[in-house]
Structure formats: structure tokens, C-alpha cells
Amino acid sequence: MFSRTDTVVILVGLVSALYLKLRQDWEGKPPLKVKKIFIYPIKSLPPISVAQGTLDERGFEFDRRFMLMSPLDGGKIKWNLVSNSPQNTRIIPSIKGTTLTLTSPLSKTLSVPLYPLTDGLKVVEVDLYNSKVESFDMGEEAGAFFSEACGMPTRLMYIGKRGSRPVLGSMGQGKDPRIAYNDHGSFMVATTSSLNALSKSLGRPMDIIPLRPNILLEPASFLFPLREWVEDYWAELRLGEVSMRLTSNCVRCVSLNIDYSTGKFLEGNNLPLKALSKDRRVDTGSHSPVFGRYGFSEDSGKVIKVGDRVWVRKVNEERTTFDWPY
Fold it and tell me: Whole-angstrom Cα distance, residue 250 to residue 136?
């Protein structure tokens, strides 16, 4: 017969062993929650942190429905990306109701409706990474504001209420999703664990803003930590009431090295892109390092909120391969 003390010791040992086993199992796909949600009304500008985001057919409502373009000599066009227009990070967006307001570094402001009327506006074909869409030039007032704020002739483009671009390569997984002015996917998902790993490699805290995710996830409890980079293998998430397919890695560029407070590239040898490149060139389809996953959802009209519980519903055995054709 076991004594009461022996019984307690055995039970504690069994519970501890069970907890350690569960913790090990959960580190790959623990219970998570939404820490932050970001939308980027104008591509290349800073994001707006929001408490919730409503989904439509292209991603979050109001996300990257506008972008900037600059006409160059010889009929060429510069599509303003954050990587080639770091100065744009000093133009601050805000939303009140259905109005988008921009504040320039000179404290001048411009307000535009988030759903502008397009009758009479000039139509321009926007070509992002070989994925094209007819768009609308928002006119002279917006052009004058952004030309001054960006330091070169610049026009504000609007994708239209229903305008969208095709997803190229295998990222759509045969479901033919559509995107706005996003680079490659409707959503970009990142985790605090991988952000912490990048900070450790960099030797200083890395801000999430230059990494430009839509959704930042964190463990729902300290009891079940999340391993860094485990999201490389995630194939499907459940975020509150929303199902999301994760189909491709997000490969990274020099935009990680931008200082959003100055609108200039950081200088020196210890830079975020270099730190990430040390051991994150893990996608056989690209030489660029990986941070985060691109996602798509068919749950138009549903809402994702900060604090929503998140579950990893499906995991790939191998990393996916980035194959967007440039």
C-alpha cells in the first residue's frame, strides 16, 4: 500500500509529466491570441493599429486600397513601395468614419473618402510584380499634396471599390483569390516569438512596424510558449470565427532597414535585414530571408478582433516554396 505522501508524490509526478508532454506538443501549435491588427490604407505609408478588422474579398477592409505612383522621364513610372520610397513612412494616415486623413512631415493635411466616387477620374493601369489592375488617379489636390510630401511628382491611385489583382504562382492553391495593392497575399501573419528571435539576433529590440504584418499573434498563455519560426509550417488558422489559409512564406527585402521616424535607411553594419539573413534563408524559391506567412480567407464579412483566440488547424510537413513569377 502506498502512503498518503507516496500517493501525492506519484500524482504530482504524473501531472508534471503530463504537463511537460502537453507543453512539448503545444509548442508547435499552442493556443494563441491576436495581439495586434494593422491596416495600411496607402501602400508604402505607415500602418494604422486597429482594434478589429472586417474582411472582404481582398483582405481587411481599407487595407492597401490606395497607392502612390511617380511619373519619370521617358514615360516610365515609379510605383511607390516602401523599399524605394522610404520618405513616405513620415506621412501619417488616420481614419475617422469613412474618411482617410493624411498628415505630411510639414503638418499639412489631406482628407479623402475611403470609398471615393470614380466618375470622371483618369484610369491608369497599375502593374505590381506582373499582377495588373486598372486604377483611378485621384486628381490634382491629392497629387499636389503628395508631390510636396514625397519630394517628387506623385499621384494618388485608387483601386476602386471592387478592383483587384490576380494572385500569381501557386499561392492561391487553386482557389483564385484576389488582392488589392498588397504585395502577394491578402494578409501577412507574424508572431511575437519570431520577432523576439530577430531582436536577439540583432542585439536590440526590433520594432514590428518595418516588418509590416496585418496580424501579430502571441501565445494565449505563458504556460504554453511558442517556438520561434514554427509558423513556417502553418497551413491553416482559425482566428475567432475566421478561417485563414497560409500558403506562402513572406520573403524580405531592404525595407526592414528603414527608420520610420526619419524616413531614411539605417546606416551601419548591424542592420535588421542582415540579422535576419543569418539563418532565415529557408525558402528554396528565394534567396531572401523569411519572416511571416501570407494568408487568404473566404470569410468575407466576418471580423477579426484583438484578443481573439487563434488555433493552428493544419500544419505542413515541409516548408512551402515561394514561386511568384517576377
Answer: 28
Mode of pairing for the β-strands spanning 242-251 and 258-259: unpaired
Contacts 24+ apart (CB under 8 A), 235-238: 235/313, 235/314, 235/315, 235/316, 236/312, 236/313, 236/314, 237/189, 237/295, 237/310, 237/311, 237/312, 237/313, 238/310, 238/311, 238/313
Amino acid symbol at 198: L
- Shortest CA distance to 296 belongs to which of 180, 193, 208? 180
**How confident is the model over 208-229, as pLDDT tens digits?**
999 999 999 999 998 888 999 9
Distance of CA 165 to the CA centre of its chain: 17
Spell out the SS3 assignment of the chain: CCCHHHHHHHHHHHHHHHHHHHHHHHCCCCCEEEEEEEECCECCCCCEEECEEEEECCEECCCCCEEEEEECHHHCEEECCCCCCHHHHHCEEEEECCEEEEECCCCCEEEEECCCCCCCCCEEEEEECCEEEEEEECCHHHHHHHHHHHCCCCEEEECCCCCCEECCCCCCCCCCCEECCCCCCCEEEEEHHHHHHHHHHHCCCCCCHHHCCCEEEEECCCCCCCCCCHHHHEEEEEECCEEEEEEEEEECCHHHHEECCCCEECCCCCCHHHHHHCCCCCCCCCCCCEEEEEEECCCCCCEEECCCEEEEEEECCCCCCCCCCC
C-alpha span between 112 and 45 (Å, rounded) = 15
Contact between 32 and 226 (Cβ < 8 Å): yes
| Strand order across the beta sheet in which 66-71 lies | 77-79, 66-71, 155-158, 131-137, 123-128
pTM, two decimal places: 0.91
The residue written with cell numbers 500500500 in the block is 1
Are 178 and 297 in contact by the 8 Å Cβ rule? The answer is no
Task: Name residue 24's amino acid.
Answer: Q
Predicted confidence (pLDDT) per residue in 191-206, tens digit: 999 999 999 999 999 9
